[in-house]
# Entry
Amino acid sequence: MAKINRNYLKLPGSYLFSTIGKKVREYAAAHPEAEIIRLGIGDVTQPLAPAVIAALHSAVEEMGQADTFRGYAPDLGYEFLRKAIADYDYGRIGCSISPEEIFVSDGAKCDCGNIQEIFDTDSRIAVCDPVYPVYVDSNVMAGRTGEYDADLQRFRDVIYMPCTEENGFAPEFPEEVPDLIYLCFPNNPTGAVITREALQGWVDYANKNGAVILYDAAYEAYISEENVPHSIYECDGAETCAIEFRSFSKTAGFTGLRLGYTVIPMALTLEGVRLHDLWARRHGTKYNGAPYIVQRAGEAIYSPEGRSQITGQIAYYMENAKLIREGLREAGYTASGGVNAPYIWMKTPDGLSSWEFFDFLLENANVVGTPGVGFGPHGEGYFRLTAFGSRENTLRAMERIRHL
Ligand code: PLP
# Structure
């Protein structure tokens, strides 16, 4: 008789955003006059840049002609895109990553979720708390996390690294040494960043202990300050201990188009085996590549016009971030993030829990955000707002919050 993968049953309750969706739908049904503003879900709202649209059109034309038609893409992605990535995203900042070390995919979520497959089932994982849920959930499905402890709201065999106001929302080395360390900077949900020195500390720690860092840099394009690393490969020795994930989703509004990539340096080996080769094998077996037209669209963001257009989009969102952060502070709230990331992490007032504040804001300002506790126990007492709304909605939401 067929059996299910029982690890799936360990995944805690309903997904954060479905609970939010349900609450908002119920509130809207009961209050049809309410104009609800959503600053909760982290999806972009600006249309694709003209350079991207032009590249899509021209690639579509190519697909309609026998002599320029393309079928399956090369396993690791088209050379033109991998070269543009290596030159711009890495060469420009002095990191020597070659096109052969880059795997193009349809987004960072799949890569972050699938990468655990190439590691031993007994690997001990460490994650930040609060955290983007994909890292833990994909390891739960693989049977790597032990049982869920509902009282502690955590999996028994996962090492959680608290990210709190006291440590500037940056994790500290855990007592027990992990095998796999998930780091994400600029961070979702806290909007915090890590300094180059602190990241170098993690690279040294991983190299010393034989651990691998899985570095999610999906929000790299939002970095505005000096001394904030754009890539983990800016650190000495990262090529022997780190895998990096990047996404075109928030960089260029590709959440609907789908494009991302993963870097695995040739020098990264475990037990004498190159992780690059394992991931290449996995890619070749389970994945047939991002569409040609989307890879051409991705290439377009590296052209001078493309660059300047997506820089303008990011500046638009970051102006929203500034309005939210400063608006909250003026209204007496404690808020951080929003300088190198599109997320603002605010403390709930008067000791309200994250969900109590969610209800309070929905009912009194008709504004939707994301309860911090949905990202982990140390998110309790916090609330995440995102800069991805329209300017008009952001301004209106802040006006309402100020008048609460
Ligand atoms: N990594 C982090 C930290 C994210 O917040 C997100 C999207 O919300 C992703 C990865 C997913 O990126 P993609 O759209 O490329 O799958």
